[in-house]
Protein backbone atom coordinates (compact mmCIF):
# COMPACT_ATOMS: atom_id res chain seq x y z
CA UNK A 1 0.00 0.00 0.00
CA UNK A 2 1.26 3.44 -0.87
CA UNK A 3 2.41 5.71 1.92
CA UNK A 4 -0.16 8.11 3.29
CA UNK A 5 2.02 11.02 2.23
CA UNK A 6 1.74 9.87 -1.36
CA UNK A 7 -2.01 9.19 -1.35
CA UNK A 8 -4.57 11.38 -3.10
CA UNK A 9 -6.48 11.80 0.16
CA UNK A 10 -3.37 13.14 1.90
CA UNK A 11 -2.83 15.63 -0.91
CA UNK A 12 -6.44 16.85 -0.65
CA UNK A 13 -6.14 17.20 3.12
CA UNK A 14 -2.90 19.14 2.66
CA UNK A 15 -4.70 21.40 0.17
CA UNK A 16 -7.45 21.95 2.74
CA UNK A 17 -4.90 22.90 5.41
CA UNK A 18 -3.20 25.30 3.01
CA UNK A 19 -6.58 26.83 2.21
CA UNK A 20 -7.31 27.39 5.90
CA UNK A 21 -3.84 28.91 6.41
CA UNK A 22 -4.39 31.21 3.44
CA UNK A 23 -7.81 32.20 4.78
CA UNK A 24 -6.33 33.00 8.21
CA UNK A 25 -3.59 35.13 6.63
CA UNK A 26 -6.13 36.93 4.46
CA UNK A 27 -8.38 37.59 7.46
CA UNK A 28 -5.44 39.01 9.37
CA UNK A 29 -4.54 41.31 6.47
CA UNK A 30 -8.16 42.45 6.15
CA UNK A 31 -8.30 43.31 9.83
CA UNK A 32 -4.99 45.15 9.64
CA UNK A 33 -6.19 47.17 6.66
CA UNK A 34 -9.39 48.00 8.51
CA UNK A 35 -7.45 48.95 11.64
CA UNK A 36 -5.22 51.25 9.61
CA UNK A 37 -8.29 52.79 7.97
CA UNK A 38 -9.88 53.34 11.39
CA UNK A 39 -6.64 54.88 12.65
CA UNK A 40 -6.65 57.27 9.69
CA UNK A 41 -10.23 58.26 10.46
CA UNK A 42 -9.33 58.93 14.10
CA UNK A 43 -6.31 60.99 13.06
CA UNK A 44 -8.45 63.04 10.67
CA UNK A 45 -10.99 63.54 13.44
CA UNK A 46 -8.25 64.79 15.77
CA UNK A 47 -7.12 67.31 13.17
CA UNK A 48 -10.71 68.46 12.62
CA UNK A 49 -11.36 68.75 16.36
CA UNK A 50 -8.17 70.79 16.85
CA UNK A 51 -9.18 73.17 14.07
CA UNK A 52 -12.66 73.52 15.52
CA UNK A 53 -11.22 74.34 18.95
CA UNK A 54 -8.99 77.01 17.40
CA UNK A 55 -12.00 78.44 15.57
CA UNK A 56 -13.86 78.69 18.89
CA UNK A 57 -10.85 80.53 20.33
CA UNK A 58 -10.76 82.92 17.36
CA UNK A 59 -14.50 83.60 17.49
CA UNK A 60 -14.36 84.13 21.24
CA UNK A 61 -11.45 86.56 20.89
CA UNK A 62 -13.35 88.48 18.23
CA UNK A 63 -16.50 88.46 20.37
CA UNK A 64 -14.68 89.76 23.50
CA UNK A 65 -12.52 92.34 21.73
CA UNK A 66 -12.87 95.75 23.32
CA UNK A 67 -14.20 94.53 26.65
CA UNK A 68 -12.77 96.15 29.73
CA UNK A 69 -12.27 94.40 33.01
CA UNK A 70 -12.93 90.73 33.71
CA UNK A 71 -16.06 88.65 34.10
CA UNK A 72 -16.22 86.21 37.02
CA UNK A 73 -19.80 84.97 36.65
CA UNK A 74 -21.53 84.14 33.38
CA UNK A 75 -25.22 85.04 33.37
CA UNK A 76 -27.90 83.68 31.05
CA UNK A 77 -27.55 86.53 28.59
CA UNK A 78 -23.85 85.96 28.22
CA UNK A 79 -24.43 82.20 27.89
CA UNK A 80 -26.75 82.81 24.95
CA UNK A 81 -24.17 85.02 23.32
CA UNK A 82 -21.41 82.48 23.90
CA UNK A 83 -23.63 79.75 22.43
CA UNK A 84 -23.95 81.83 19.27
CA UNK A 85 -20.15 82.09 19.20
CA UNK A 86 -19.82 78.30 19.38
CA UNK A 87 -22.47 77.70 16.72
CA UNK A 88 -20.74 80.08 14.36
CA UNK A 89 -17.33 78.48 15.02
CA UNK A 90 -18.55 74.86 14.53
CA UNK A 91 -20.84 75.41 11.59
CA UNK A 92 -18.03 74.55 9.18
CA UNK A 93 -16.96 71.41 11.00
CA UNK A 94 -19.35 68.50 10.30
CA UNK A 95 -19.74 66.02 13.13
CA UNK A 96 -17.97 68.21 15.71
CA UNK A 97 -19.71 69.39 18.86
CA UNK A 98 -18.24 71.64 21.53
CA UNK A 99 -18.62 74.55 23.81
CA UNK A 100 -17.09 76.93 26.36
CA UNK A 101 -16.23 75.81 29.85
CA UNK A 102 -15.36 77.85 32.96
CA UNK A 103 -13.45 76.61 35.94
CA UNK A 104 -15.96 78.05 38.39
CA UNK A 105 -19.30 77.49 36.64
CA UNK A 106 -18.72 74.55 34.38
CA UNK A 107 -20.41 74.68 30.99
CA UNK A 108 -21.02 78.22 29.77
CA UNK A 109 -22.09 77.29 26.22
CA UNK A 110 -22.72 74.19 24.12
CA UNK A 111 -23.60 73.65 20.49
CA UNK A 112 -23.73 70.91 17.84
CA UNK A 113 -24.75 72.79 14.71
CA UNK A 114 -24.22 69.83 12.31
CA UNK A 115 -26.18 67.31 14.36
CA UNK A 116 -28.26 65.13 12.02
CA UNK A 117 -31.00 64.27 14.48
CA UNK A 118 -34.65 65.36 14.43
CA UNK A 119 -33.82 68.77 15.87
CA UNK A 120 -30.97 70.95 17.17
CA UNK A 121 -29.05 69.29 20.01
CA UNK A 122 -28.74 71.65 22.97
CA UNK A 123 -28.09 69.39 25.96
CA UNK A 124 -24.59 68.57 27.03
CA UNK A 125 -23.77 64.83 26.50
CA UNK A 126 -24.08 63.43 30.01
CA UNK A 127 -21.91 60.35 29.39
CA UNK A 128 -18.92 62.49 28.45
CA UNK A 129 -19.21 65.25 31.11
CA UNK A 130 -16.36 63.84 33.21
CA UNK A 131 -14.11 63.64 30.16
CA UNK A 132 -15.03 67.21 29.15
CA UNK A 133 -14.38 68.51 32.65
CA UNK A 134 -11.02 66.75 32.84
CA UNK A 135 -9.78 67.90 29.42
CA UNK A 136 -10.75 71.52 30.14
CA UNK A 137 -9.00 71.40 33.52
CA UNK A 138 -5.84 70.04 31.89
CA UNK A 139 -5.90 72.70 29.15
CA UNK A 140 -6.40 75.49 31.72
CA UNK A 141 -3.65 74.15 33.95
CA UNK A 142 -1.17 73.63 31.09
CA UNK A 143 -2.22 76.84 29.34
CA UNK A 144 -2.09 75.03 25.98
CA UNK A 145 -4.33 72.80 23.89
CA UNK A 146 -4.74 69.29 25.25
CA UNK A 147 -6.20 66.34 23.29
CA UNK A 148 -7.58 63.02 24.49
CA UNK A 149 -8.83 59.85 22.81
CA UNK A 150 -11.15 57.24 24.30
CA UNK A 151 -11.72 54.06 22.32
CA UNK A 152 -14.80 51.86 22.76
CA UNK A 153 -16.02 48.77 20.90
CA UNK A 154 -18.01 50.60 18.25
CA UNK A 155 -16.61 54.14 18.39
CA UNK A 156 -13.63 56.30 19.32
CA UNK A 157 -14.22 59.59 21.16
CA UNK A 158 -11.81 62.43 20.27
CA UNK A 159 -11.79 65.46 22.63
CA UNK A 160 -9.77 68.69 22.46
CA UNK A 161 -9.46 71.40 25.12
CA UNK A 162 -7.85 74.79 24.50
CA UNK A 163 -7.50 77.86 26.81
CA UNK A 164 -9.42 81.00 25.80
CA UNK A 165 -7.89 84.49 26.02
CA UNK A 166 -10.40 87.09 27.13
CA UNK A 167 -12.30 88.73 29.94
CA UNK A 168 -14.04 85.55 31.17
CA UNK A 169 -11.91 84.15 33.96
CA UNK A 170 -10.85 80.44 33.74
CA UNK A 171 -12.54 79.93 30.37
CA UNK A 172 -11.59 77.15 27.98
CA UNK A 173 -13.01 75.98 24.71
CA UNK A 174 -13.57 72.32 23.96
CA UNK A 175 -14.57 70.30 20.93
CA UNK A 176 -15.48 66.66 20.52
CA UNK A 177 -16.09 64.24 17.66
CA UNK A 178 -17.13 60.60 17.49
CA UNK A 179 -15.50 58.21 15.03
CA UNK A 180 -17.79 55.19 14.52
CA UNK A 181 -15.57 52.21 13.72
CA UNK A 182 -18.55 49.95 12.94
CA UNK A 183 -19.77 52.19 10.17
CA UNK A 184 -18.44 53.65 6.99
CA UNK A 185 -16.81 52.30 3.87
CA UNK A 186 -13.90 50.59 5.60
CA UNK A 187 -16.18 48.69 7.94
CA UNK A 188 -18.42 47.65 5.05
CA UNK A 189 -15.38 46.44 3.12
CA UNK A 190 -14.23 44.49 6.17
CA UNK A 191 -17.60 42.79 6.57
CA UNK A 192 -17.79 42.07 2.85
CA UNK A 193 -14.26 40.64 2.87
CA UNK A 194 -14.94 38.44 5.88
CA UNK A 195 -18.23 37.30 4.40
CA UNK A 196 -16.65 36.37 1.08
CA UNK A 197 -13.73 34.72 2.84
CA UNK A 198 -16.03 32.72 5.12
CA UNK A 199 -18.20 31.62 2.21
CA UNK A 200 -15.11 30.61 0.22
CA UNK A 201 -13.60 28.62 3.06
CA UNK A 202 -16.91 26.96 3.93
CA UNK A 203 -17.65 26.15 0.29
CA UNK A 204 -14.15 24.78 -0.25
CA UNK A 205 -14.36 22.70 2.92
CA UNK A 206 -17.71 21.26 1.88
CA UNK A 207 -16.47 20.60 -1.65
CA UNK A 208 -13.27 18.91 -0.48
CA UNK A 209 -15.16 16.93 2.15
CA UNK A 210 -17.67 15.71 -0.42
CA UNK A 211 -14.84 14.91 -2.82
CA UNK A 212 -13.03 12.88 -0.16
CA UNK A 213 -16.23 11.04 0.75
CA UNK A 214 -17.24 10.29 -2.84
CA UNK A 215 -13.70 9.33 -3.83
CA UNK A 216 -13.38 7.01 -0.83
CA UNK A 217 -16.69 5.29 -1.65
CA UNK A 218 -15.84 4.89 -5.33
CA UNK A 219 -12.40 3.45 -4.56
CA UNK A 220 -13.90 1.11 -1.94
CA UNK A 221 -16.41 -0.06 -4.56
CA UNK A 222 -13.59 -0.73 -7.03
CA UNK A 223 -11.66 -2.63 -4.35
CA UNK A 224 -14.74 -4.73 -3.63
CA UNK A 225 -15.22 -5.55 -7.31
CA UNK A 226 -11.56 -6.42 -7.78
CA UNK A 227 -11.62 -8.57 -4.62
CA UNK A 228 -14.40 -10.85 -5.89
CA UNK A 229 -13.52 -14.09 -7.63
CA UNK A 230 -14.01 -14.00 -11.37
CA UNK A 231 -14.96 -17.01 -13.51
CA UNK A 232 -12.06 -18.74 -15.27
CA UNK A 233 -9.63 -16.55 -13.25
CA UNK A 234 -10.27 -13.63 -15.59
CA UNK A 235 -10.48 -10.05 -14.40
CA UNK A 236 -13.98 -8.89 -13.57
CA UNK A 237 -15.63 -6.31 -15.80
CA UNK A 238 -15.73 -3.23 -13.58
CA UNK A 239 -18.78 -0.97 -13.51
CA UNK A 240 -18.33 2.81 -14.05
CA UNK A 241 -17.90 4.86 -10.88
CA UNK A 242 -19.42 8.13 -12.08
CA UNK A 243 -16.14 10.04 -11.71
CA UNK A 244 -14.54 10.82 -15.05
CA UNK A 245 -10.96 10.34 -13.88
CA UNK A 246 -11.68 7.03 -12.15
CA UNK A 247 -13.76 5.86 -15.10
CA UNK A 248 -10.75 6.28 -17.38
CA UNK A 249 -8.86 3.95 -15.03
CA UNK A 250 -11.82 1.54 -15.01
CA UNK A 251 -11.89 1.51 -18.82
CA UNK A 252 -8.15 0.82 -18.91
CA UNK A 253 -8.54 -2.06 -16.42
CA UNK A 254 -11.44 -3.51 -18.39
CA UNK A 255 -9.44 -3.30 -21.61
CA UNK A 256 -6.45 -4.94 -19.89
CA UNK A 257 -8.74 -7.68 -18.55
CA UNK A 258 -10.12 -8.34 -22.03
CA UNK A 259 -6.60 -8.58 -23.45
CA UNK A 260 -5.56 -10.87 -20.60
CA UNK A 261 -8.56 -13.14 -21.19
CA UNK A 262 -7.73 -13.34 -24.89
CA UNK A 263 -4.09 -14.10 -24.15
CA UNK A 264 -5.10 -16.80 -21.65
CA UNK A 265 -7.43 -18.43 -24.14
CA UNK A 266 -4.65 -18.47 -26.72
CA UNK A 267 -2.19 -19.87 -24.19
CA UNK A 268 -4.68 -22.50 -23.08
CA UNK A 269 -5.29 -23.49 -26.71
CA UNK A 270 -1.55 -23.75 -27.30
CA UNK A 271 -1.16 -25.79 -24.11
CA UNK A 272 -3.98 -28.10 -25.18
CA UNK A 273 -2.37 -28.59 -28.59
CA UNK A 274 1.00 -29.34 -26.99
CA UNK A 275 -0.64 -31.70 -24.50
CA UNK A 276 -2.49 -33.37 -27.38
CA UNK A 277 0.83 -34.03 -29.13
CA UNK A 278 2.32 -35.51 -25.97
CA UNK A 279 -0.83 -37.48 -25.38
CA UNK A 280 -0.79 -38.92 -28.89
CA UNK A 281 2.83 -39.97 -28.51
CA UNK A 282 2.12 -41.51 -25.11
CA UNK A 283 -0.96 -43.35 -26.38
CA UNK A 284 1.00 -44.76 -29.30
CA UNK A 285 3.71 -45.99 -26.94
CA UNK A 286 1.28 -47.49 -24.41
CA UNK A 287 -0.81 -49.26 -27.08
CA UNK A 288 2.15 -50.52 -29.09
CA UNK A 289 3.61 -52.57 -26.23
CA UNK A 290 0.43 -54.62 -25.52
CA UNK A 291 -0.19 -55.08 -29.23
CA UNK A 292 3.35 -56.31 -29.76
CA UNK A 293 3.00 -58.76 -26.87
CA UNK A 294 -0.35 -60.06 -28.18
CA UNK A 295 1.01 -60.44 -31.70
CA UNK A 296 4.08 -62.33 -30.52
CA UNK A 297 2.01 -64.71 -28.38
CA UNK A 298 -0.47 -65.29 -31.20
CA UNK A 299 2.29 -66.07 -33.71
CA UNK A 300 4.00 -68.46 -31.30
CA UNK A 301 0.72 -70.22 -30.58
CA UNK A 302 -0.01 -70.67 -34.28
CA UNK A 303 3.48 -72.03 -34.97
CA UNK A 304 3.50 -74.43 -31.99
CA UNK A 305 1.95 -77.94 -32.01
CA UNK A 306 1.46 -77.82 -28.22
CA UNK A 307 -2.33 -77.58 -27.57
CA UNK A 308 -1.71 -75.63 -24.31
CA UNK A 309 -0.01 -72.74 -26.10
CA UNK A 310 -3.23 -71.21 -27.58
CA UNK A 311 -4.83 -71.16 -24.10
CA UNK A 312 -1.85 -69.31 -22.60
CA UNK A 313 -1.83 -66.93 -25.56
CA UNK A 314 -5.52 -66.16 -25.09
CA UNK A 315 -5.01 -65.49 -21.35
CA UNK A 316 -2.21 -63.02 -22.17
CA UNK A 317 -4.34 -61.39 -24.87
CA UNK A 318 -7.20 -60.90 -22.39
CA UNK A 319 -4.83 -59.42 -19.81
CA UNK A 320 -3.46 -56.98 -22.35
CA UNK A 321 -6.98 -56.08 -23.49
CA UNK A 322 -7.87 -55.30 -19.86
CA UNK A 323 -4.76 -53.14 -19.65
CA UNK A 324 -5.78 -51.28 -22.80
CA UNK A 325 -9.31 -50.88 -21.43
CA UNK A 326 -7.96 -49.28 -18.21
CA UNK A 327 -5.74 -47.04 -20.31
CA UNK A 328 -8.64 -45.90 -22.47
CA UNK A 329 -10.85 -45.23 -19.44
CA UNK A 330 -8.11 -43.13 -17.86
CA UNK A 331 -7.62 -41.27 -21.12
CA UNK A 332 -11.32 -40.54 -21.36
CA UNK A 333 -11.33 -39.23 -17.78
CA UNK A 334 -8.35 -37.05 -18.60
CA UNK A 335 -9.50 -35.70 -21.96
CA UNK A 336 -13.21 -35.39 -21.16
CA UNK A 337 -13.32 -33.96 -17.64
CA UNK A 338 -16.76 -33.89 -16.06
CA UNK A 339 -17.93 -30.83 -14.16
CA UNK A 340 -18.05 -31.72 -10.45
CA UNK A 341 -21.50 -32.38 -8.98
CA UNK A 342 -21.08 -30.54 -5.69
CA UNK A 343 -22.96 -31.85 -2.67
CA UNK A 344 -22.43 -31.78 1.11
CA UNK A 345 -19.77 -34.40 1.79
CA UNK A 346 -18.70 -35.98 5.10
CA UNK A 347 -15.00 -35.36 4.56
CA UNK A 348 -13.77 -37.25 7.63
CA UNK A 349 -15.94 -40.29 6.87
CA UNK A 350 -14.90 -40.36 3.23
CA UNK A 351 -11.17 -40.26 4.06
CA UNK A 352 -11.63 -43.08 6.60
CA UNK A 353 -13.45 -45.22 4.00
CA UNK A 354 -10.76 -44.59 1.37
CA UNK A 355 -8.06 -45.65 3.84
CA UNK A 356 -10.03 -48.78 4.81
CA UNK A 357 -10.61 -49.84 1.18
CA UNK A 358 -6.85 -49.97 0.59
CA UNK A 359 -5.93 -51.83 3.78
CA UNK A 360 -5.80 -55.24 2.10
CA UNK A 361 -3.53 -54.05 -0.71
CA UNK A 362 -1.30 -52.25 1.78
CA UNK A 363 -0.95 -55.35 4.01
CA UNK A 364 -0.08 -57.44 0.98
CA UNK A 365 2.79 -55.03 0.33
CA UNK A 366 3.83 -54.98 4.00
CA UNK A 367 2.68 -51.34 4.33
CA UNK A 368 0.50 -49.75 6.98
CA UNK A 369 -2.03 -46.92 6.34
CA UNK A 370 -2.29 -44.38 9.16
CA UNK A 371 -5.21 -41.91 9.23
CA UNK A 372 -4.32 -38.62 10.89
CA UNK A 373 -6.36 -35.60 11.91
CA UNK A 374 -9.21 -34.72 9.56
CA UNK A 375 -11.34 -31.54 9.81
CA UNK A 376 -14.98 -32.10 10.69
CA UNK A 377 -17.63 -30.65 8.44
CA UNK A 378 -19.59 -31.20 5.24
CA UNK A 379 -18.13 -28.98 2.50
CA UNK A 380 -19.53 -28.98 -1.02
CA UNK A 381 -17.49 -31.53 -3.03
CA UNK A 382 -17.96 -34.11 -5.76
CA UNK A 383 -17.50 -37.23 -3.60
CA UNK A 384 -17.11 -39.64 -6.53
CA UNK A 385 -14.37 -37.58 -8.19
CA UNK A 386 -12.60 -36.96 -4.90
CA UNK A 387 -12.64 -40.67 -4.06
CA UNK A 388 -11.02 -41.40 -7.42
CA UNK A 389 -8.32 -38.78 -6.79
CA UNK A 390 -7.62 -40.24 -3.33
CA UNK A 391 -7.53 -43.78 -4.78
CA UNK A 392 -4.82 -42.71 -7.22
CA UNK A 393 -2.81 -40.94 -4.52
CA UNK A 394 -3.08 -43.87 -2.06
CA UNK A 395 -2.21 -46.47 -4.71
CA UNK A 396 0.76 -44.37 -5.77
CA UNK A 397 1.92 -44.06 -2.14
CA UNK A 398 1.47 -47.82 -1.44
CA UNK A 399 3.38 -48.81 -4.58
CA UNK A 400 6.31 -46.53 -3.67
CA UNK A 401 6.52 -47.46 0.01
CA UNK A 402 9.01 -50.12 1.16
CA UNK A 403 7.96 -53.10 3.27
CA UNK A 404 7.41 -51.95 6.82
CA UNK A 405 6.68 -48.41 5.68
CA UNK A 406 3.69 -46.25 6.53
CA UNK A 407 1.34 -44.32 4.29
CA UNK A 408 -0.19 -41.36 6.11
CA UNK A 409 -3.51 -39.75 5.14
CA UNK A 410 -4.58 -36.53 6.87
CA UNK A 411 -6.35 -33.21 6.30
CA UNK A 412 -6.33 -29.69 7.68
CA UNK A 413 -8.55 -26.69 7.12
CA UNK A 414 -6.76 -23.42 6.36
CA UNK A 415 -9.24 -20.56 6.09
CA UNK A 416 -11.54 -21.20 3.13
CA UNK A 417 -9.39 -24.09 1.84
CA UNK A 418 -8.93 -27.71 2.90
CA UNK A 419 -5.58 -29.45 2.38
CA UNK A 420 -5.49 -33.25 2.12
CA UNK A 421 -2.02 -34.85 2.51
CA UNK A 422 -0.93 -38.30 1.36
CA UNK A 423 2.63 -39.21 2.43
CA UNK A 424 4.80 -42.28 1.90
CA UNK A 425 8.25 -43.34 3.10
CA UNK A 426 9.68 -44.34 -0.24
CA UNK A 427 12.74 -42.99 -2.02
CA UNK A 428 11.01 -39.77 -3.00
CA UNK A 429 10.59 -38.26 -6.44
CA UNK A 430 13.67 -37.76 -8.60
CA UNK A 431 14.50 -34.13 -9.25
CA UNK A 432 14.24 -34.69 -12.99
CA UNK A 433 10.56 -35.66 -12.63
CA UNK A 434 9.39 -33.11 -10.06
CA UNK A 435 8.59 -30.37 -12.60
CA UNK A 436 6.70 -32.76 -14.95
CA UNK A 437 5.21 -35.15 -12.42
CA UNK A 438 1.55 -34.29 -13.12
CA UNK A 439 1.83 -34.45 -16.90
CA UNK A 440 0.33 -37.45 -18.72
CA UNK A 441 2.55 -40.52 -19.21
CA UNK A 442 5.22 -39.24 -16.80
CA UNK A 443 6.02 -41.97 -14.27
CA UNK A 444 8.96 -43.40 -12.36
CA UNK A 445 7.58 -47.00 -12.40
CA UNK A 446 8.24 -49.25 -15.38
CA UNK A 447 4.71 -50.72 -15.16
CA UNK A 448 2.94 -47.38 -14.66
CA UNK A 449 0.94 -45.47 -17.26
CA UNK A 450 1.63 -42.02 -15.83
CA UNK A 451 -2.05 -41.05 -15.90
CA UNK A 452 -3.03 -41.32 -12.22
CA UNK A 453 -1.47 -38.05 -11.04
CA UNK A 454 -2.63 -36.27 -14.21
CA UNK A 455 -6.21 -37.34 -13.38
CA UNK A 456 -5.78 -36.05 -9.80
CA UNK A 457 -4.66 -32.69 -11.19
CA UNK A 458 -7.71 -32.43 -13.47
CA UNK A 459 -10.08 -33.29 -10.60
CA UNK A 460 -8.43 -30.64 -8.39
CA UNK A 461 -8.69 -28.04 -11.13
CA UNK A 462 -12.35 -28.91 -11.77
CA UNK A 463 -13.04 -28.14 -8.09
CA UNK A 464 -11.16 -24.83 -8.30
CA UNK A 465 -8.16 -26.20 -6.38
CA UNK A 466 -4.73 -27.58 -7.10
CA UNK A 467 -2.45 -30.50 -6.28
CA UNK A 468 1.27 -30.31 -5.64
CA UNK A 469 4.28 -32.15 -4.33
CA UNK A 470 5.57 -30.84 -1.01
CA UNK A 471 9.24 -30.07 -0.62
CA UNK A 472 11.17 -33.16 0.57
CA UNK A 473 12.21 -33.20 4.25
CA UNK A 474 15.91 -33.06 5.13
CA UNK A 475 17.51 -36.51 5.19
CA UNK A 476 18.85 -37.95 8.42
CA UNK A 477 22.37 -39.41 8.59
CA UNK A 478 21.24 -42.14 11.04
CA UNK A 479 21.33 -45.64 9.59
CA UNK A 480 17.97 -47.32 9.20
CA UNK A 481 15.90 -44.12 8.91
CA UNK A 482 13.17 -44.26 6.27
CA UNK A 483 13.76 -42.57 2.95
CA UNK A 484 12.74 -38.97 2.33
CA UNK A 485 9.44 -40.15 0.88
CA UNK A 486 6.94 -37.97 -0.97
CA UNK A 487 4.01 -35.91 0.28
CA UNK A 488 1.25 -34.93 -2.11
CA UNK A 489 -0.98 -32.01 -1.07
CA UNK A 490 -4.46 -31.71 -2.54
CA UNK A 491 -5.90 -28.20 -1.93
CA UNK A 492 -9.65 -27.76 -2.46
CA UNK A 493 -12.01 -24.86 -1.70
CA UNK A 494 -14.03 -25.31 1.49
CA UNK A 495 -17.52 -24.34 0.38
CA UNK A 496 -20.03 -24.63 3.23
CA UNK A 497 -23.43 -26.05 2.32
CA UNK A 498 -26.25 -23.50 1.84
CA UNK A 499 -28.27 -22.74 4.92
CA UNK A 500 -31.96 -23.56 4.76
Automatic annotation (TrEMBL):
Residues 470-500 are annotated as: Disordered. Gene3D superfamilies: 1.10.287.130, Histidine kinase-like ATPase, C-terminal domain. Residues 282-496 form the Histidine kinase domain. This is histidine kinase. Its EC number is 2.7.13.3. The chain crosses the membrane at residues 190-213. It catalyses: ATP + protein L-histidine = ADP + protein N-phospho-L-histidine. The lineage of its organism: Bacteria, Pseudomonadati, Pseudomonadota, Alphaproteobacteria, Hyphomicrobiales. One of its GO terms (molecular function) is ATP binding. SMART domains: HATPase_c (SM00387), HisKA (SM00388).
